[in-house]
Amino acid sequence: MSENIRVDLLTREFPPHVYGGAGVHVEELSRVLRDLIEVRVHCFDGPRDPDSVPAGVTGYADLPELALANAAVRTFGVDLQMTIGTAGTDLVHSHTWYANLAGHLSKLLHGVPHVISAHSLEPLRPWKAEQLGGGYALSSWAEKTAYEAADGIVAVSNGMRDDILRCYPAIDPARVEVIHNGIDLSGWQAPAKDDPHRLAVLQKYGIDESRPAIVFVGRVTRQKGLPYMLRAAEQLPKDVQLILCAGAPDTPEIAREVADLVENLQSKRDGVVMIAEMLPRADLVAIESAATTFVTPSVYEPLGIVNLEAMAVGIPVVGTATGGIPDVIVHGETGFLVPIEQMQDGTGTPIDREKFEADLAASLTDMVSDPERARQMGVASRRRVEEHFSWDAIGVRTVEFYKKVLGR
């Protein structure tokens, strides 16, 4: 198969509108693919400034006729516009349910293969009914329809592959291939201790480098498990700082729950830093470079790009042993995996919440109690992402998968 192929990437997020791991993934994947094949990107949030994005990026706005419609219906309006825009491509590659319908319709309309990257699965996020109401039934239908008809599916971890085949048993396992998420190694690297920007960021947020620190980075959503972390933090040694870079809440309900838990924790201990705004990369790198460890208390996590980012900065990760997290963390070498027994109803809720929170607190306490061991694990973490999660290697594997699908 010739390398001279055109692939259209379909995504909700693309710069400058990136708020989660899927958006980071598409941004970086499109960058490395451009050196290998012709790439066009179709995204949400309206047209882009041509001077700020690469050539071949088309942004679509919500249809004004659907301004008062349910959010899922508005999404379908953008998907229909994308379907028209993909004419002439050799293959479409969609990311998240927001763009899956556009990929499926493009497959039908233009007679081209459809590849999906699985960043999350709607059946495993039932709390989205809080956010979308009846739109959750629409998003679930769109995802299921697209997945079962897709010509190829990329799972970002072995755990995600298992989840796909469990949630959608009609899918042929031969069509599902594991290709991990990647990391921009140049963009995630610890600055010098005396770097002026680093020092300014730490001062701005009151972060004391003389104290051990635990950092959380993630959206305020049920799957990220932040409430469990906040309750577990009550069991941490008093000298430990907890830095929470937690924004973009899914719903007012989860926002209030987290705010109440943070306020309660701050009333019992100092060193609890809550940063609700979405920070630029340089500020996150500065904060992470001052931390003893990173924490991922997720109850559902296909892989967790934030884990790779923290490891690239050179800090270990304490994460839940669920989903794709065990693909990233080598227990005892680059961090600790916290065991969890979960409900199998799609929520991922811990069967014994208090035990999970106690085990999480114990692992974090163990990590921060030995700063030199944590430092060595941080060095091993950086080495692991360099060896296994570089975007250049992932780009080559993705093109090989495209060629396999096109050759069927």
Quick summary:
This protein has 15 helices and 13 strands. It is an alpha/beta fold and about 400 residues long.
CA-atom Rg in angstroms: 21 Å
| Total count of strands | 13
Q: Helix- and strand-based class? A: alpha/beta
- Unreliable stretches (pLDDT < 50, length at least 5) are none
Shape: globular
Plain-language structure description:
By secondary structure, the chain is an alpha/beta fold. The chain is built from 15 helices and 13 strands. The strands form 2 sheets. The chain has a 7-stranded parallel beta sheet with strand order 3-2-1-4-5-6-7, sandwiched between helices. It has a 6-stranded parallel beta sheet with strand order 10-9-8-11-12-13, with helices on both faces.
Features of the shown structure:
408 residues, alpha/beta, 7-stranded parallel beta sheet, 6-stranded parallel beta sheet
Give the helix/strand layout.
Blueprint: E1 6-11, H1 21-33, E2 38-43, E3 57-59, H2 71-85, E4 91-95, H3 97-110, E5 114-118, H4 128-132, H5 135-149, E6 152-155, H6 158-167, E7 176-178, H7 196-204, E8 213-219, H8 226-232, E9 241-247, H9 252-268, E10 272-275, H10 281-289, E11 293-296, H11 305-313, E12 317-320, H12 325-328, E13 335-338, H13 353-368, H14 371-388, H15 391-407
Parallel strand pairs: 1-2, 1-4, 2-3, 4-5, 5-6, 6-7, 8-9, 8-11, 9-10, 11-12, 12-13
